[in-house]
From TrEMBL:
Record-given protein name: Uncharacterized protein
Transmembrane intervals: 6-26, 33-52, 64-82
Lineage of origin: Bacteria, Bacillati, Actinomycetota, Actinomycetes, Micrococcales
Keywords: Membrane, Transmembrane, Transmembrane helix
The organism of origin for this protein: Intrasporangium calvum
Cited InterPro entries: Alkaline_pH_Ca-Antiporter (IPR052946)
Length: 92
């Protein structure tokens, strides 16, 4: 039987777990421990997205792989300030 790490790699499971945690906690008042846990899960989901972008960039090759990786990182980086602005607007 295959190992669970090979059947369910972290790059697939962490975004799903982060999504479930985000849906479960959306709109709720969280204590500090729950907030840190959700933040760590979302950070792991971002790392998984960057990993997938690196895999695609490696498979595509130069120069298109570098462009794809740069676009992915730019999209992720541009979403961070927009997300915090949305939180401030909601009063969180």
């Amino acid at each position: 039987m295959a190992d669970l790490r090979t059947r369910f790699p972290w790059t697939t499971t962490m975004p799903l777990v982060a999504l479930l945690a985000l849906v479960a906690t959306w709109g709720r008042d969280l204590n500090a421990m729950a907030f840190v846990l959700v933040a760590l899960l979302l950070g792991a989901a971002v790392l998984a997205a960057v990993h997938h972008a690196e895999v695609v960039a490696h498979r595509v090759g130069e120069p298109y792989g570098s462009i794809a990786l740069a676009v992915a990182v730019t999209i992720i980086a541009s979403r961070m300030p927009l997300g915090s602005a949305a939180l401030r607007r909601c009063g969180a």
